[in-house]
Amino acid sequence: MKNLFHLISVLLIVILSLDATTQKLNAQAMTMGNEPSFAPLNLSKSKVIDKLQLEVWYQFNWKYAGQSSIQKDLRTIQIGKNFIFSRNESLYQNDSISTSLIKQGAKGVHLYNKPTVPYEVLIDKTKKTFELGYRVPYDKLLIFFSAPLPQFKWNISKDKQKTILGQTCYLATTTYQGKKFEAWYCEELPINAGPYYFSGLPGLILAVSSDDFSWTAVGIVKGNNRDMLSYGRPKQKMSKKDAIQFIKKIYSDPVAIFSGLGVECYSSANNDRPLSSGSIKWSIPEVILFEQ
Amino acid sequence: MYKRKIHNKIQTLFVLLVLIVFLPTHLYASNKDFTVIRGKITNQKGEVVDNAIISIATQENGTPLAYTESDEKGNYVLKFKSSAEVLFIKVQHLSMRPIVKKSSNKSQELNLQGETTSFQLAEVIVKAPPIRFSGDTTSYRISYYTEDADKKLADVLKRMPGVSVDDNGKVSFNGREISELQVDGLNLFDGKYNIALDRLKPEDIVSVDVIQNYQPIKVLQKSRLSDAVAMNLKLSPKAKNVLTGRLEIGSGWQQKTNNWLYDGSVSMGLFNANTQSFLTLESNNSGEFYQQTYANKILDNTEHILSSSLPNTPLRQKNSYLFNKGKAFSYHGAWRITKEQKLQYNITALSEETNGSSSTKYDYNLSSGKLVTHNRNLFYGEQYKKVDLGIVYEYNKSNVFIKNKFNVLWDKDTPEVSVVTKSPLVENLNLPANTIYNAFRIIRKFGEVRGIDFSLNTYLNQSNERLLLEASPTLVSGKAANRESIQQSLNYKKGYLEARMESLSTFRKGSLSIDPYLFSIIDWNTINTSLTSNVDSLFDVNSLLSDRVKYHRARIGFGLSFQYALGGWQMVGYIPLLYSHLEIEGANVSNKKNFGSCEPTITFMGYLFNNVSFKLNWSRDNSFNRTEDFIHSLVAKNSYEIERSNISEIFKTSSDKVSTFFEYKNPFKMFFGNLHLLYQNIQHPMIMNTKVENSNIEVLLEPYSYSTRILTAGTQVSKSFDWKKTMIKAGLDYRNTNSSAMYQSVLNHFHIHSIISSLRIGMKPFEWLGGNMQVQYVWSKYTQSGETNNYQKAVLSDGNIVLNKKNLSLVIEGQYYAERADQPSDLCLFNMMVGWKMRNMEWTLSLRNIMNVSAYHYHIVNNLQNQINGSYALLPRSIMLKVMFNIK
Q1: Hey, are the CB atoms on A96 and B134 less than 8 Å from each other?
Q2: Which pTM was predicted?
């Protein structure tokens, strides 16, 4: 009953926040492809949450569940004094361009429709908690859950070294949620941070890998005390279980979800007739299922 | 009952006693194996350091037994088990030097103090996408587009999709010229950005940021739309706070002429957070041209009335046909005084001598059916000298903006041409000019958007043009005093004062904003001409040989500027109402006239689709006669052209322009494109009547009404692919001109269609092999009422192949030019460079004109009456060995 209530409330928020500019003809119709598309966020409303110390770019290699081919994303980790924010760089760039276009009077802005994992992580270092959020396809809504920062039990082997971005890194291994992870951290960058919500090592984690996904640093730039911003957007907090279940439902039958909200869904290949429930299924990234 | 209570109390006391006695023992036992170290981390000022990482190990750099972070009060606790007697505690923080403390293995309180330092991180950007977008900014990662053989930033920019650099060094982004080029946010080079493109090392730059809708004036950021494009070169951290630059020395030899060649240059920059300096000093006689690099884009465009017939060819590399000797010095500095105040200063000095030779045959079909041929064999030379100085001060705050730009330029152009015609003449032309320019602007904002914008621009220019034509002493015998000579002098003084005041956001309702503005322009011009000759038969005895013209204009106007946004569309416009008063006074002409006019400019802008922006512009413009239009005396422009005017009226030339511009930008596909259309209708009140005489051309300006209609359409697309680093740029420009020309006093209507298509491909199939190729195809068709069409077709291509193996590089450059006309001609030129890179130096051996091609032949169809067949002597084969040192 509680789950049903959550699902209904989230669906209501989804329909209220659907971006009319991205739709086919009006707010009650949308075009869908074989990949989920993501509506851009207007970045004009922002507030300063911290001062940037470092900005690290990671290449994120991931797979769809049940598939072997590797997909690539670029992630940016912004490290502040009190917060660490991990964003999807491609989605951010799309947001950024769209904000500029809207400012100039653009009527329609482009959806991002390349394979990507729409996750965002905000770590509160003071409270030792993190928020893991997912962008809802075709929407500005972010659904997220909050949890205490995991206490990873790392085994450090300083005899194993690797150079990443010219920095000496040491190996640390752990098992978390049933998966073995190998991390390479750098003592010369004394910051307790890393990609996703990996942390707890005496230096910045420059690479983390498991069988299905990995992050490798490809660039570091100093923050130069720039502002770390949080952007105004619709957000819905849920339990971890509900959030993952909701995302799984959208990916497994997006037409059913959006049609249930009164939105007519059309195929991008053939838009003569509205799509029926079950006609489109999107592959879900393994890293999302990892959280269930 | 009481006994039971007593018993219970005794039992509780017993348990407590047991606990009191045994708990510390138990606790001691449980902590016996652990060591607990706690303490506080502070810096040398006693301030707490939070988020520091504290680790403990048995060896100085060993695997940590435990580690923790200091809390917001700087406190830390380390708890660990170890049997080691000595331990090493290490404290690290981004803002502190690491502390390593040796300690005995015992529980203790250990407060540690560190020394604050600035965080040193060599910023690295690796594997990031080649192009990133953030709002209005497009960032190109320069290392992705740089090849080992690149010495100039311009070569790298040419490979970037969406960016183009034309043959004159003009940089454009998606079809629009950049308004300024900054170095790390400072406009260091002001208008002379070619210095940055030619002399900054590509490896000193991390990324090239292109900023669209660039509005640098903070006061206007909320109230004025801008479609300006700026480029910012983001410096590599390695190039900051150190002296960076290049020192080059080279020597070589040129075949046939047996000339020893030299080339030396130093370029050095020092870039700090608030100050930037860049110095260049160079000299060569090997063909490296400096004029374009050091051109002042605002002031160097001084037009001269007298002009020599110096050659201009379609060949891209001037140093293939012009011998050049030059010296140049420049210093540019920028100082960010405060966050709001900037100062930029520069000085440039340049001296260049250029030589070459050409042989040209001009065929003129006279209306009587007679063919007149002028053969002009030229040995030309030019000496160009200039010194310019500029200072720019800027105060840019959110409520006030002040800018003053001051420039002084002295330049002297002295072309010298030996013309071998029927009577050999030497043409000496001296074109010195002095220019002072000052632009002042102040904007003061009152409240959120309202304010006043005032600008005052002053321009003063004075030139003394002199032409001396005399028979060459080497070609004609006789005493100098008896030689035929013609002297033409022309003194031109001009200046203007322009004031403009605009009220900002005077009327504002919703998205509509209407602002009134007032402006006035006063310009004054004086020309004195005189021609003296000892060749009596050359001119009609009744010809006027001297003249004096004073021409003053005052324009006062009131206008409205407006901005309006409707849906996704925006409309921006200026509607000025003008009153003009003009006075002309000369030896042969005197006239006054008043004009009233409206010269609006209206622009619609918006987005048609997600990635396609659209701009539609309409403008009407009126211009009045130039001062030189009133010179009634004969003016010998050069050795074969004489001009004079028959204009006594003040005329207005009106022009209507409609243009559209479509821009396509796809961030994720690295695909850029634009399409522009322009229709222009010009109503001319005067016409040039060209009369070909036996050995001269006389151009007479006379009153005649006719119109010119020009339609131009152009498109450019560029895309880059990750596959083999492939880049494709294609362009197509079409021009259709309908106009009239007067020739031998007969009016001819003509129609020209011309197409220029270009394709540029760059590719790096292997790590050791790369190349670029550019092909340009020119087609034009000339039609004159009832006459045969004339076609001209030409192909110009150039390219290079770059081979790299370890430190060795080989570059082969080729140029091919082919013309298909009545007299087909071809040209193929090759250059080669071998480079050897060492740690901080590089050796280059270059061979120019390997095939030793001696001449380049060309054919130009100007119109049915005028066709040119000519040839330029190319510079012979040369070899040069150069060594380049990196300054760092």
Answers
A1: yes
A2: 0.77
